[in-house]
Amino acid sequence: MDGAFIKTQNLCFSYSEEEESVNVLKNVNIEITPGEFVALLGHNGSGKSTLAKHFNAMLLPSGGKVYVRNMDTEDESLKFAIRQQVGMVLQNPDNQIVATIVEEDVAFGPENLGIDPKEIRRRVDEALKTVDMYDYRTHAPHKLSGGQKQRVAIAGVIAMEPDCIVFDEPTAMLDPSGRREVMNTIEKLCRQKNIAVVLITHNMDEAARADRIVIMDNGEIIREGPPAEIFSDSAFMRGHNLDIPQASALAEELKKRGFYLGASVLSPEQCAEAIYKYWRCYGGNSEN
Length: 288
Ligand SMILES: Nc1ncnc2c1ncn2[C@@H]1O[C@H](COP(=O)(O)OP(=O)(O)O)[C@@H](O)[C@H]1O
Ligand SMILES: [Mg+2]
Prior knowledge:
Blueprint: E1 6-13, E2 25-28, E3 31-32, E4 37-41, H1 48-54, E5 63-68, E6 71-72, H2 79-85, E7 86-89, H3 102-112, H4 117-130, H5 146-158, E8 164-168, H6 176-193, E9 196-200, H7 204-207, E10 212-217, E11 220-225, H8 227-232, H9 234-239, H10 246-256, H11 268-281
Parallel strand pairs: 4-9, 4-10, 7-8, 8-9
Antiparallel strand pairs: 1-2, 1-3, 1-5, 5-6, 10-11
Helix pairs in contact: 3-4, 3-5, 4-5, 5-6
The chain binds adenosine-5'-diphosphate and magnesium ion.
Magnesium ion binds at residues 48-49, 168.
């Protein structure tokens, strides 16, 4: 068909079969291409989790179509192939950990696929190394920090060797260091392992790290584009009660005072770099 990894066509969904029930998803058309990093934003109740569950056939459309690598998610015989290709990581790591030893937990998924034990061993070791938890392989998961637990949960998904992972608010329950660990892991999976990432988040600094932002409101996609474009339109974001990254907000305040840093200020590093360049050009003192 085409190069899209996941593709929805006029996807509609209602949790109830009754005719007058409201659609939670309304003609959603979205494509995820192989290896890309998409951040999915929107208020609570806008339909993000419902959409995400269609990406691995946990939910099936009430109307329209969802394809994963051209496989129709409504085809029951393809369900396992689809779930192997699209992994899911949720908010609470405690609900995702099933075993009492880290490496057994990571092995759980591939064991259920009926994979050869030697191959399982290789996958578990590799997955734990990827998330930097190999040294903890014989530890008890319940004694780990939130960020470590979430990384073990991610290793369990990687061990299935998916080509796409959907993360539904994976950092929402974590402290700042846990959040950083998990975000660095997510970015590594995408940039080094070429795994497509769909990240649902309320944290705009996290969203700014994506290739593309998709914004949902009331069951519809209302806007999409690169982070630099989306976050420089602060009027749009504010109009929909959405935040922008702190560095972008700072750049906007400076712009109001006639100090324009450019459109692509998304992180403290980019902000510092832009200010430094400006300062060197206009009145910078090279002595110190
Ligand atoms: N299992 C469910 N049964 C009935 N309604 C649901 C269920 N899950 C979510 N909803 C409703 O669907 C809408 C979208 O929810 P959800 O996809 O969870 O949004 P988000 O993830 O953006 O917060 C909300 O109105 C929510 O109340
Ligand atoms: Mg949700």
